[in-house]
Structure formats: C-alpha cells, structure tokens
C-alpha cells in the first residue's frame, strides 16, 4: 500500500507541529534537495529569526506561518516529516539521499523533510500569501469544514456529471484532502461502487456518502491524536478496512476484498458490500489478456 500522507495524517501533523513550533523562533532553514523548492522570493533565509504564530493546512498542504512569512510544503507520495527534539550541530549537506529540508528552532529542536524513492514530487514554498501557491489556489472545499454540507456535496456531484465516484473523491479541485486510501474507505462504508457515476446517486446514497466522508476522516484524525509523527503511517495502515487489503476478508460481510490496478495506483473494494457481488474489470489484467 502506498504510504502517501492524506488529509487525516496531514491534520495530525499540523496539530503535532503546532504544539511544538508555536511561539518558537526559526533559527535556520537548510535546503538539501534544491529541486524541492518551488519559489525564490522571499528566500528561505527570510524565515530566519521569525517566530512561528501557527501551523495550519490547506487540503494536504502544511502551512507554517512565521509572522506573515509562510513555509508551505506538500509531502506528495513519498515525502515525510521527521521530528527531532535535538538536532545535531552538523550542517545539512546537499546530496542524493532522502533528505530535502531541515528546520531548526531556537532551542535546537526541529524537523527534517525527507522523500523516499526516485520520483521527486515533494514541493516546498516560501510565500507571504499561501493562495499564491498553485495547488492551494485550485483546491475544492474542505470536507471537514462546518460549511461543507450535504447540499455542498450534492452540487459537486451534479457538476461532476457521469465521472466515476472514485475519481471525483480523489480530485483535489473538487474536494480538498481525500486521497486514494480514504476514498476506498469512504466508498466501502457508504456501500457505493467506485465506478458509479457521480450524478446518478439517489438522495439516500448521497446522504450515506456525506456521512461516510465526515465520519471516516474524523475517525482517522481521532485515531491519530497524540501520536508522534513517526507513528502516523503505521496507524493509518492499521485503520484501513479495504484499502491495501486485497485478498483479505471483508470485516463487514466476509467476502474477499478485490482490487483494480491502474498505471500508478490501485484501489480496493468489497464486491458484496459495494458492487452487488460483481467483480470490477481490472484494467491491467484486461490489457494483458488482449
């Protein structure tokens, strides 16, 4: 299962960081992966000496606000944050390893941003206006916001037309923060096929989807409360009922969890719970059999 951080993990990281960064000054920011920094004005050094006022998020983007200068980053598929109560004195060396950025606070605590693998998708921005970050400017509404109602969802599904539900839930421009893993979980709880057209839901199905979105994301955040950053990925995996569990038994009905594979991802679902017992065509296998 891909360990891509999604909104519940990002929200947990926000709370974890806010508790540790707020009212501390940023002593130094060191860049190891130059390709990760997407902005040049203000420079990283503009953050030096500024006190962190709050940490928040926009969808899956983390935003550290230091007196109006924002350090914004998106962890992408393979990025992660490693907190250290005490950073060593050795300066960070640019290289080919996983290290991308280090933020050192005035008490020598801080964190490293790392990225595993060869695909470099981790993105870091320094800005005075988070809305100037292209990915933030185009975000859809936040599903955990109070003003995200069943009517909001109904309008989004209507606008999506016959697009498949799975793709609509994953699209950050439609709804901010739901990714591959939690869209699988949400659709399982709502008992909806991933391939069902977005505009074909009945009122009852729309209500079930709305409740599943709110509940699944809130529960995932609650499960992560109080965990250290290093423990969030393992917690995410342990809380999944269908995602990443192809071939295992569905806890709800006892059927075998099935999978559909795509070029760079896969999705899991329960045929009995979600598709009337039918297996969805696995696009990858279909191509091989031709």
Automatic annotation (TrEMBL):
Catalytic activity: Hydrolysis of DNA containing ring-opened 7-methylguanine residues, releasing 2,6-diamino-4-hydroxy-5-(N-methyl)formamidopyrimidine
Keyword Acetylation: no
Domain spans labelled Formamidopyrimidine-DNA glycosylase catalytic: 5-122
Pfam families on file: Fapy_DNA_glyco, H2TH, zf-FPG_IleRS
InterPro entries: FPG_cat, FPG_N, H2TH_FPG, Ribosomal_uS13-like_H2TH, Znf_DNA_glyclase/AP_lyase, Znf_FPG/IleRS
Single GO biological process annotation from the record: base-excision repair
Gene Ontology MF, one: zinc ion binding
Keyword DNA damage (UniProt): yes
UniProt domain FPG-type: residue ranges: 241-275
SMART domains listed in its UniProt record: Fapy_DNA_glyco (SM00898), H2TH (SM01232)
Alphabetical UniProt keywords: DNA damage, DNA repair, DNA-binding, Glycosidase, Hydrolase, Lyase, Metal-binding, Multifunctional enzyme, Zinc, Zinc-finger
Cofactor(s), names only, from the UniProt record: Zn(2+)
UniProt xrefs under Gene3D superfamilies: 1.10.8.50, MutM-like, N-terminal
Record-stated family: Belongs to the FPG family.
Name by which UniProt lists this protein: DNA-(Apurinic or apyrimidinic site) lyase /Formamidopyrimidine-DNA glycosylase
Naturally occurring in which organism (per UniProt): Microlunatus soli
């Amino acid at each position: 299962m891909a360990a891509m951080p999604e909104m519940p993990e990002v929200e947990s990281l926000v709370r974890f960081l806010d508790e540790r960064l707020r009212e501390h000054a940023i002593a130094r920011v060191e860049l190891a992966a130059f390709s990760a920094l997407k902005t040049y004005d203000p420079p990283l050094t503009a953050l030096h000496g500024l006190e962190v006022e709050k940490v928040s998020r926009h969808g899956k983007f983390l935003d550290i606000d230091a007196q109006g200068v924002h350090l914004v980053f998106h962890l992408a598929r393979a990025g992660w944050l490693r907190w250290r109560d005490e950073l060593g004195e050795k300066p960070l060396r640019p290289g080919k390893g996983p290290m991308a950025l280090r933020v050192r606070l005035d008490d020598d605590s801080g964190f490293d941003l790392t990225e595993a693998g060869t695909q470099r998708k981790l993105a870091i921005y320094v800005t005075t206006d988070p809305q100037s970050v292209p990915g933030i400017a185009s975000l859809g509404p936040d599903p955990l916001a109070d003003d995200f109602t069943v009517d909001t969802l109904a309008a989004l599904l209507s606008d999506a037309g016959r697009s498949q539900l799975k793709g609509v839930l994953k699209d950050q421009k439609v709804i901010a923060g739901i990714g591959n893993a939690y869209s699988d979980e949400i659709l399982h709880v709502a008992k909806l096929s991933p391939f069902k057209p977005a505009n074909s839901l009945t009122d009852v199905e729309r209500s079930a989807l709305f409740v599943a979105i709110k509940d699944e994301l809130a529960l995932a955040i609650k499960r992560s409360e109080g965990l250290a950053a290093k423990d969030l990925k393992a917690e995410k995996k342990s809380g999944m009922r269908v995602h990443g569990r192809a071939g295992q038994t569905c806890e709800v009905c006892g059927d075998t969890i099935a999978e559909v594979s795509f070029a760079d991802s896969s999705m899991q679902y329960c045929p009995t719970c979600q598709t009337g017992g039918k297996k969805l065509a696995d696009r990858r296998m279909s191509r091989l059999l031709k």
